[in-house]
Specification:
The chain is an all-alpha fold and about 140 residues long. It has one domain: NusB-like (N-utilizing Substance Protein B Homolog, Chain A). It contains seven helices and no strands. The radius of gyration is 14 Å and the shape is globular. Belongs to the NusB family. Pfam families: NusB (PF01029).
Length: about 140
């Protein structure tokens, strides 16, 4: 597993846990950073968490627009976190090819979510990836 894959997984863990605890992801991030007994998250994981938190409204609007038949609130929580990270990278991480973003998200869904989540995430992020250049401009 690559360093970026591990960072995505750590970011996913924090975003998922923040939602489960009903707290701001940045608050949980601060707790994690201040906990010397826990391994460090790393710069990329921290940037993903900050990026998703700082752009959550726009990200969720895009997810709602492209998740046919699903509201963001109705999605499984792990899928929601995976999609948020993927959408953030597609829109704001210029150094990550869109195909890598989508593939990493699909693989995370296959490992951590339902049997249908990989296809669902592939479809939603694939649509966002196709319009991401226009959204950045």
């Amino acid at each position: 597993m690559s360093a970026r894959s591990k960072a995505r997984k750590r970011a996913l863990d924090v975003l998922y846990a923040a939602e489960a605890r009903d707290i701001d992801p940045l608050e949980l991030l601060a707790e994690r950073v201040d906990a010397p007994e826990l391994p460090p998250l790393g710069d990329y994981a921290e940037s993903l968490i900050r990026g998703v938190a700082g752009n959550s409204r726009r990200i969720d609007e895009l997810l709602a627009q492209h998740a046919e038949g699903w509201t963001v609130d109705r999605m499984p929580a792990v899928d929601r976190a995976i999609l948020r990270i993927g959408a953030y990278e597609l829109l704001y991480a210029d150094d990550v090819p869109p195909a890598v973003v989508v593939n990493e998200a699909v693989e995370a869904a296959k490992d951590l979510s339902t049997d249908n989540s990989g296809k669902f995430i592939n479809g939603v992020l694939g649509q966002i990836a196709s319009i991401a250049p226009q959204l950045r401009g």
